Amino acid sequence: MRIGIYGGSFNPIHKGHTELAASIVRQGLVDELWLLVSPLNPLKQGATSDIEEYEHRLDMARLATENIEGVKVSDFERHLPLPSYTITTLNELRKAYPEYEFVLVIGADNWRRFPCWYHAQEIVDTYSILIYRRPGCELDEVMLPPSVHVVETPLYDVSSTQIRESVKQGCIMRHWLDEKVLAYIKQHHCYSA
Ligand code: ATP
């Protein structure tokens, strides 16, 4: 079975994330997509002062994906050393589930920063990577290594940062949130100033 690994802070999860995940599965690019909620993103250290509790982010991700076929939420990185580097996670996943093939799913925005990732070359040499387009991020497709493929998915110009800001300012961007996530944010007073 081919498993797509789609990692992030998901702080909070929004429709940009879920529509993308559903599209990747619907297109048959992977058999399942595992949404790996990261306890701490190594490249976001220092910008995490308003990061919600890990349990809240996991709960919201589960609520937003519970009705999306083939998309699962994983807390696999919970038990790994921090910060959670992608190469470590992928290697540990392979050890834990030797029967599965793991494929990394990342956005064009992350591909631009990819050379800075810990052991970037090892990731490219060992795993397949699916890159989806992001608004304003051109991809030089001629220069991509053979293990890297661009996939076509709908583009949604929204970020968790914008959602958090909208909550703080009291004008929450509700149309980008699953109804249950919206209710959860209100109930638990997430991201309140
Ligand atoms: P933040 O604004 O806090 O940086 P984010 O919205 O970019 O968050 P992350 O949790 O960092 O979300 O994203 C997890 C993954 O989802 C990343 O690979 C990122 O490229 C991707 N992603 C973020 N927003 C979108 C979107 N609107 N459409 C598709 N993918 C997205």
Tags for this entry?
alpha/beta, binds adenosine-5'-triphosphate, globular, about 190 residues, 6-stranded parallel sheet, 6 strands
Count the strands? 6
Strand content: 15-25%
How far from one another are the termini? 44 Å
Instruction: Please state the CA-atom Rg, rounded to the nearest Å.
Output: 16 Å
Biggest β-sheet description? 6 strands, parallel
Gross geometry: globular
**Structural class given helices, strands, pairing?**
alpha/beta
Helix and strand sequence: EHEHEHEHHEEHH
The tally of helices reads 7
pLDDT average, as an integer? 91
Present as ligands are: adenosine-5'-triphosphate
Strand order of the largest sheet: 3-2-1-4-5-6
Low-confidence stretches: none
Helix content: 25-40%
Describe this entry's structure for a reader:
This protein is an alpha/beta fold and 193 residues long. The chain is 34% helix and 17% strand. The protein contains 7 helices and 6 strands. Strands 3-2-1-4-5-6 form a 6-stranded parallel sheet, with helices on both faces. Strand 2, helix 2 and strand 3 form a beta-alpha-beta unit. It is globular and about 45 Å long. The model has no long low-confidence stretch (mean pLDDT 91). The structure holds adenosine-5'-triphosphate.
Can you lay out the helices and strands and say which pair or pack?
Elements (H helix, E strand, L loop, with lengths): L1 E7 L6 H12 L5 E6 L16 H12 L5 E4 L11 H11 L4 E7 H6 L6 H7 L1 E5 L15 E4 L8 H9 L10 H9 L6
Parallel strand pairs: 1-2, 1-4, 2-3, 4-5, 5-6
Helix pairs in contact: 2-7
The structure holds adenosine-5'-triphosphate.
